[in-house]
Amino acid sequence: MILFDLRCAKGHDFDAWFRDGATFDQQAEAGAISCAICGDTEVSKALMTPAVASGPRRDERDAAKVLKALREMQRHIQRNFDHVGRRFPEEARKIHYGEAEKRNIYGEATRDEAKELVDEGVEVSAVPWLPPHDG
Q1: Least crowded by CB within 10 Å, which of 39, 43, 70, 127?
Q2: pTM above the 0.85 mark?
């Protein structure tokens, strides 16, 4: 296994493990590698240096890991929760007060609407929502 420093066409740096250089070449040519920050599939090897940590590179890699985790969480929510859009405060209240079937939902609410829900004892969480890779 080899760790390559990679760069997308938009200039984001990240790293990824590959079996060998040929595997990287095959996957890059097929567009199977995407930037962890923006999703761009035009990826190339960046100039590699010895494993010496530098401030900005590490920050970019940490940011890429956070973004990847957020995207995984979003996919989980989209697969397992009902999207109720702007009806979120209304639906959350109905579930809380037993007027609707108990289920996991997600949607949009203003800060004031979310605060009102919390004040009523309705369990809600704010989740940072990322735009799609192509957006």
Answers
A1: 127
A2: no
